[in-house]
Design goal:
Order of helices and strands: HEHEHE
Structural class: alpha/beta
Shape: globular
Strand order of the largest sheet: 1-3-2
Largest sheet: 3 strands, parallel
Distance between the termini: 20 Å
Strand content: 5-15%
Helix content: 25-40%
Oligomer: single chain
Length: 97
């Protein structure tokens, strides 16, 4: 359970085995997860798997993603699975009610 003050009561998971991560993610796409990775390659691999299931997915890495989306993430990210590498981890607030 995520114990940080801003998101108390919001589930957060940390896995060490990639197969467990992928299974959990692919089974929860209807919940529109935000997927943070520290690997561009892994982010791209997840994107390729998810895009086969739903076209409501956006990928942000050093080479991918529309920078203009950062101007209004509440609109740009609404109803999408978001996958990102460290490119956007800092400075974006997506607090959708």
């Amino acid at each position: 359970m995520n114990e940080y003050q801003n998101y108390q009561g919001v589930s957060a998971y940390k896995f060490k085995e990639l197969d467990k991560i992928e299974t959990k993610l692919l089974n929860s796409l209807d919940q529109l997860p935000f997927i943070a990775t520290d690997s561009k390659t892994y982010a791209e691999m997840l994107y390729e798997k998810i895009i086969k299931i739903t076209d409501k997915v956006k990928l942000y890495t050093a080479d991918e993603g529309d920078v203009k989306d950062m101007n209004d993430v509440l609109t740009a990210w609404k109803d999408y699975v978001i996958i990102y590498s460290p490119k956007i981890i800092y400075g974006i607030d997506f607090n959708s009610e």
